[in-house]
């Protein structure tokens, strides 16, 4: 059974919950157990999506056990009955479509240090490549810090996939993912006509105080900068699993803190969905070719 591993920014957990909950009939889900995964688990449960948690160093053994089921031989004479033969074919087809997804959520704020972000992602990629048919990075370009990963990773026997827009470009960051692509992001920024705007997805809205407390010279939440009169708007980007009242309150608190007005926009899960399905489809095809060769 093919294995798709996903290394994800905590800021994109809503998008990841969405795509996994839509695929739960054909995907077995394993989470890397760490401090960042527990809110993600709660959201999965809310969407009736179940996962098993294991430390990263235990997952190769767990996958070996999961992929060594007891074989059941069905006598050929039984398969001659049309109804039973059809059931058997449906079972084989479902097995061809089933994958195991291993998710590793990395902590917030890594993107403020491009070198640290790249080293953390690369370290986890190397550890997960040995048991994966493909790795999907649930990250944007984050200051172009990840642009050399594909070249650095070319010697690994594991395909690498990215979040890409309709043009095939890697998305700039998590806001570009939420808005539906780099072009849409650029259009929204230009629509401000020079007005400074700060973008809040549900995850950003629930995490901005934590990000502020971790502030550094490169932090996204620079209180002095955001209180500049040029910054006037908060762009509130909803998504399909955002919790209304909590999201509203978090955005209102941010807007009051920095004396901004709120503009609402509907977000999109399309980039997350299509990028996941592309990675999934490719590793399934690759697995079938390997089995038949």
Structure write-up:
The chain is an alpha/beta fold. It has 2 domains: 3-171 and 270-292, 3-Layer(aba) Sandwich (Rossmann fold), CATH 3.40.50; 181-266, no CATH class. The protein has helices spanning 13-22, 38-46, 59-66, 76-79, 82-97, 114-129, 149-152, 174-179, 182-191, 202-213, 223-226, 244-257, 270-292; strands spanning 3-9, 27-32, 52-54, 99-106, 134-138, 159-162, 196-200, 231-238, 261-266. The strands form 2 sheets. It has a 6-stranded parallel β-sheet with strand order 3-2-4-1-5-6, sandwiched between helices. The chain has a 3-stranded parallel β-sheet with strand order 7-8-9. β5 (134-138), α7 and β6 form a beta-alpha-beta unit. α10 (202-213) packs across α12 (244-257). The chain is elongated and about 75 Å long.
Mass-distribution shape:
elongated
Instruction: Report the CATH topology name of the largest domain.
Output: Rossmann fold
- The portion of residues forming beta strands comes to 15-25%
The DSSP helix count reads 13
Strand order of the largest sheet: 3-2-4-1-5-6
How many distinct beta strands?
A: 9
Q: Supply Rg.
A: 21 Å
Average of per-residue pLDDT values? 84
Gap between N and C termini: 16 Å
**Element pattern in H and E:** EHEHEHHHEHEHEHHEHHEHEH
Which segments are poorly predicted (pLDDT under 50) over 5 or more consecutive residues? 87-95
Task: State the helical fraction.
Answer: 40-55%
At the first level of CATH, what is the class of the largest domain? Answer: Alpha Beta
CATH architectural category of the largest domain: 3-Layer(aba) Sandwich
Class from helix and strand fractions:
alpha/beta
Query: Number of domains in the coordinates?
Result: 2
**Quick one: biggest sheet?**
6 strands, parallel
């Amino acid at each position: 059974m093919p294995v798709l591993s996903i290394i994800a920014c905590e800021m994109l957990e809503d998008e990841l919950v969405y795509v996994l909950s839509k695929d739960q009939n054909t995907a077995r889900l394993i989470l890397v157990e760490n401090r960042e995964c527990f809110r993600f688990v709660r959201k999965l449960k809310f969407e009736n999506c179940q996962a098993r948690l294991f430390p990263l160093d235990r997952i190769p053994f767990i996958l070996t056990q999961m992929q060594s089921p007891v074989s059941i031989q069905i006598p050929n004479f039984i398969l001659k009955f049309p109804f039973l033969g059809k059931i058997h074919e449906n079972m084989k087809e479902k097995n061809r479509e089933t994958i195991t997804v291993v998710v590793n959520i990395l902590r917030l704020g890594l993107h403020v240090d491009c070198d640290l972000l790249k080293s953390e992602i690369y370290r986890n990629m190397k550890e997960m490549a040995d048991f994966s048919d493909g790795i999907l990075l649930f990250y944007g370009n984050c200051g172009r810090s990840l642009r050399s990963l594909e070249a650095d990773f070319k010697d690994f026997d594991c395909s690498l996939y990215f979040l890409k827009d309709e043009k095939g470009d890697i998305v700039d960051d998590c806001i570009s993912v939420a808005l539906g692509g780099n072009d849409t992001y650029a259009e929204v920024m230009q629509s401000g006509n020079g007005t400074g705007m700060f973008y809040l997805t549900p995850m950003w809205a629930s995490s901005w105080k934590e990000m502020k407390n971790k502030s550094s010279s490169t932090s996204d939440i620079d209180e002095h900068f955001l209180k500049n009169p040029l910054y006037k708007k908060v762009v509130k980007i909803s998504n399909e699993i955002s919790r209304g009242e909590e999201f509203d309150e978090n955005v209102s608190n941010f807007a009051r803190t920095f004396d901004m007005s709120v503009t609402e926009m509907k977000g999109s899960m399309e980039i997350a969905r299509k990028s996941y399905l592309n990675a999934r489809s490719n590793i399934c095809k690759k697995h079938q070719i390997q089995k038949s060769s």
